[in-house]
């Protein structure tokens, strides 16, 4: 295995080679030349060049030591996570150029560390939110199950308990399905297929899932949309997003209420407006309602897990669109979904 040469070894090798060559030259000159002046000048010149060589090597060594110490100090600061690392950019030297590269590398490392820390925090919050959402249904299922196992109940009461258990199971299933959809969207596993298609058909697909719940509460649902209105969008996932808004509208609108859906084309965007006569949302909660698992304090008696609007916003934003909301407490809410008229590249 070859050993790398140290600076000391290089200095000694160069100096010894120079002395040997100079000695041979002076010996040859002394033998061939009878002029003492020429011989003396040659000896003086050889000594002078040797001293200058030593000085040059000493300066080079000092410069290399300074360079290594500066570089080592920057790397130590980077390893220790120091934020204000001192990089030298004042002079056009090898050190400043290398420091510039190190600064770029360090900035990338810091951004990656911040991103990793943010992802860890997000995962921890998600786990905490999921455990909170799952805890109540599981506790209820355990209670119903233990009651059915330990006590003999009338058949009617057993059916009531089984119905309650089915409700909790459906809630858990809805939660898991929603989480799977959201995680697959965030991870990029699902690629939205945005193609020009009639938005009327997509709205109809979303409405099909809320017709029965709306009829049970005798809620009037009206639609105003040109069947020939073509908008670039992913039909399946856009219908999913609109369904989440409509589902909330049915949940939070009292019996004999009204839900209105309108679609109209503007210069750059097509607007889908969904209005209801429900309980409304206070203005300070406009931004919070789109957060994962967020639910207002006074709606916990209504079934839901608080992930629908979060999923809705993710779907619309990934198609280049956005969502706005206007609402007045006890007077209803209006959600505005904007989809671009031109396909986003």
Structure, explained:
With about 350 residues, the protein is of the alpha+beta class. It folds into three domains: about 5-80 and about 85-105, no CATH class; about 125-185, Helix Hairpins; about 195-340, Heat Shock Protein 90 (2-Layer Sandwich), CATH 3.30.565. It is built from eight helices and seven strands. A five-stranded mixed β-sheet has the order 2-4-5-7-6. Strands 1-3 form a two-stranded antiparallel ribbon. A hairpin with a 3-residue loop joins strand 6 and strand 7 (about 330-340). The longest helix has about 55 residues, at about 95-150.
Instruction: Give the biggest sheet.
Output: 5 strands, mixed
Distance between the termini: 56 Å
Strand fraction equals 5-15%
**Major sheet: order of its strands?**
2-4-5-7-6
Gross geometry: elongated
What's the number of domains? 3
Radius of gyration: 39 Å
By CATH, the architecture of the largest domain is named 2-Layer Sandwich
| The CATH superfamily title of the largest domain | Histidine kinase-like ATPase, C-terminal domain
* Quaternary structure annotation: single chain
At the first level of CATH, the class of the largest domain is Alpha Beta
What's a quick, concise take on this entry?
The protein has 345 residues and is α+β, with helices and mostly antiparallel strands.
Write the layout of secondary structure elements.
Blueprint: H1 7-32, H2 36-79, H3 94-150, H4 155-186, E1 195-198, H5 199-207, H6 211-216, E2 220-224, E3 230-233, H7 235-251, E4 258-265, E5 269-276, H8 308-317, E6 322-328, E7 332-340
Parallel strand pairs: 2-4
Antiparallel strand pairs: 1-3, 4-5, 5-7, 6-7
Helix pairs in contact: 1-2, 2-3, 3-4, 4-8, 5-7, 7-8
């Amino acid at each position: 295995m070859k050993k790398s040469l140290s600076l000391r070894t290089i200095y000694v090798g160069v100096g010894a080679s120079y002395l040997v060559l100079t000695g041979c030259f002076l010996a040859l000159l002394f033998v061939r030349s009878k002029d003492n002046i020429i011989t003396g000048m040659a000896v003086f010149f050889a000594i002078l060049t040797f001293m200058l060589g030593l000085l040059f090597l000493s300066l080079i060594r000092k410069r290399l030591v300074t360079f290594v110490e500066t570089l080592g100090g920057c790397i130590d600061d980077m390893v220790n996570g120091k934020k204000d690392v001192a990089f030298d950019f004042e002079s056009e030297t090898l050190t400043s150029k290398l420091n510039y590269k190190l600064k770029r590398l360090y900035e990338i490392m810091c951004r990656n560390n911040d991103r990793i820390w943010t992802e860890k925090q997000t995962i921890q919050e998600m786990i905490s939110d999921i455990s909170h959402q799952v805890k109540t249904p599981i506790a209820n299922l355990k209670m119903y199950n233990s009651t059915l196992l330990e006590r003999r109940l009338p058949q009617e009461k057993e059916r009531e308990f089984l119905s309650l258990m089915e409700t909790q199971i459906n809630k858990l299933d809805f939660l898991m399905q929603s989480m799977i959809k959201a995680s697959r969207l965030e991870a990029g596993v699902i690629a939205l297929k945005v193609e020009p298609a009639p938005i009327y058909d997509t709205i109809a697909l979303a409405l099909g899932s809320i017709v029965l719940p709306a009829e049970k509460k005798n809620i009037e649902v009206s639609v105003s949309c040109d069947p020939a209105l073509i908008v670039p969008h992913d039909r399946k996932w856009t219908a999913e997003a609109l369904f989440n808004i409509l589902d909330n509208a049915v949940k939070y609108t009292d019996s004999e209420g009204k839900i209105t859906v309108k679609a109209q084309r503007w210069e750059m965007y097509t607007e889908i407006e969904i209005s209801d006569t429900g309980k409304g949302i206070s203005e300070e909660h406009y931004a919070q309602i789109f957060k994962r698992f967020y639910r207002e304090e006074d709606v916990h008696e209504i079934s839901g897990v608080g992930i629908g609007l979060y999923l809705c916003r993710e779907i619309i934003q990934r198609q280049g669109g956005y969502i706005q909301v206007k609402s007045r407490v006890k007077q209803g809410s209006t959600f505005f979904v904007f989809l671009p008229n031109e396909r986003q590249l």
